[in-house]
Amino acid sequence: MKPQIRISRILLLLLSIAVTLNCSKDESNFEPIGSDPCKSDPCSNPELCADSCNDNAGGITGELNREDLKPEGNVTETENGYMVEGKLSMETESGETVVFNEADLDVEFNEDGSLMSISGTAEVPSPSNYFEIADPVSADVGFFSGKFLNENRNFEIKLKDDRHYFVFAIAVALEVSVGANDDPDATKPITIAVPVGGHITLIQDFTDPMFFYSLGGSALGNNSGDGNNNGDGNNGDGNNDGNGNNEDDGEVMGVSFGASYGANLVYEPSLPVENIVSFDAKSVTGGTFSFWKVLEASGLYYQNKGFSVDFNLKEPMNSEIGYGYRAGINGNINFSADIKGIISFGFPIGKGSTAIVAEASSKEGIKAQAFVNGLVEPDLSWWPDFIPVKPNGNLNAYGYVEETGAFDLGLSGSLGLEMPTGNQGVQGSLRLTQNEFTMTGEVVSGDDVWGATAIITKDETRCIATAPNNFTDGISETVTAQIDQAIETTEKALEDLEKANENYEFELSLRGLRTALPGIIDRALAEINTAEDNGIKSGRSQANKILNDNNRKLCSDNIAAVVKSAVKPYKDALTRLKNAVNNSNDNAQTRTELEAALRNLAGLNKINKSVTVSITHGHKTFGCGNLWKQTNKRTIKINRTILNSTQVSQLNEAADNVKYIQEADGIRFDAQLIVDELPTMEELEGLKKNVEACVSELTEQLGDVGFVYNHETKEYTHFMVINGEEKEVGTFDIFNNSEIVASARLELGSCNTSEELKALQQRAKARR
């Protein structure tokens, strides 16, 4: 090997190591292609990198093998291939020869002869089939699998994982003629300018053939700019030629573009777009593109057709398109349109996808449409202030634009509806067409889901609430709430009266002791009778002793009378209590007598008396004449417990409980007064039934309800449709069934619960 070659390779190696140590995927500085194959492309180097590849891709390189490559010049064999200084020719499947002139390359192969890697510098080949570079350009070159580039490089496009690509780093501007209309003789000249401080990355698959120019993107680094390579101060649209001319002259300033003869450019929408999920594209161009002056999108524009001579970089829809045309772009989107007679405004759609479809139409020939799906950020600076419907957070934007300029765009998400009764959240969507501006959505109120629609015109917004299917459920309950409250009041009064009566009866029973009193009286009477009998018996015993001791006969005695007189107060107390207990009349007098009788008897719990009796006796033979008659006095003791301590306690407790009867009677009286002044349950139930029938008839007459907001005066006018006629009514919450019915009742003058209930209550008071 010549000394200068060794020096060149040593410098290249040192430069590669230095850049590898100082650059990463997130840096924009260019890294030379030459690098450790086990780091840069392990799956294409199974022998050297047996433990580094997980995809089992082996040495798949498309159609490139050792026999496809022919080195010329200074060729040095290496362990896995050779190093060439001079020229490297490559035969493709199509039979075309691709030539790397001014080559200084390290070429390595796998054991099966498939191409493993190429690194070094060479002039960029330009096969005449699909593009030609006007003047030779030297660049660093590398060879990688699509899988590796997708996972480790930030190129704008997604490459095929199972294909291999040559990657060139170019630091000078290019003049390129791109093949057009799939015709080798038809070309479109394009000037590729290098961005300031950057370079051009060219990706080629000669087996396709395919090429992609990435401006500012590094083969082993990151893209500078917005990730779409579509802006350099001119928005990347190729509109300004530097002389102030707004012509599409083919100059590409700060944009990326490419083409694939075999349609191996993959378009995948970042958000699903109607009619297109993904497709294989034949060409791609970065920039800002306008679609019929309604949508403007910035990003990479993919087409399922190759470049055409008439392709317009800034207005692709001005180019010739045909049946089956597909195109797509991911990036920032701007909507701008005039809704006839209503409003002209626009808004940004970020993180969106646009898909263009051309289909056959029976009426219009080939019909082209641009479908869009994206997110609108919660920035309301673009929203017209005079509209009472406002976005409330992120919105999803979707719809389409036609080549006629017609459009149908939706904005769905959380919305806010400004109402005089308070702002209301709406989950729904706005619809924009060239003729209409409307809103549809749902309002959740409690357990009910209402429909909400709005029609926005230049002068006003008309909002209509659609009642839920179960709208009538609960309305009768709402309207008859006053009656239900009256029923509850009457029920409570009746319940209180019942409790008052129960309490009165309890107190009247002396808290349960009244039932015990007859038993106490009977037992006390028995004890008194026993004491009386015992007293008389004691007197008789003494009288008999006198008669027997003196051999006399009894003329007369007052034993029974005296003893009975002694126990009479006890019997009278029993009789008094018995009469008081049995008196069914309850008043202050009877209560006083009852308490006195109880306490009187309780004080006579024992008989402990000594009484003197007279015994008159005479001669057994001569009788009881005055001459023979004689009287003796004797003392009789009457001692008997007629009430035990428990019975005395019961009597005293009962006497103490008498005082509660008056209070309970007062409560019972008041409770009865309340009941007497209220409508009866029968009257209230009848009124409720009549009102429910009225409400049922009323709700059947109700139609739409809503309001009209005047954009100029900022005033609200509420309305409701009753029996097919729209009537202006007072302010009410259009999503509240009770307020709706209340307004309808006022309008119709029917189902007046308050008045009918008031009349019923007045009649009840008049009955007293």
From TrEMBL:
Using the record, list the residue span of the signal peptide; answer none if the entry has no such feature. Answer: 1-25
Asked whether the keyword Signal is assigned, the reply is yes
Coiled-coil spans in chain? 480-507
- Identification of the protein by name: Uncharacterized protein
Question: Which residue stretches belong to region Disordered?
Answer: 224-249
Q: Which UniProt keywords apply?
A: Coiled coil, Signal
Q: Compositional bias (Gly residues) at which positions?
A: 228-241
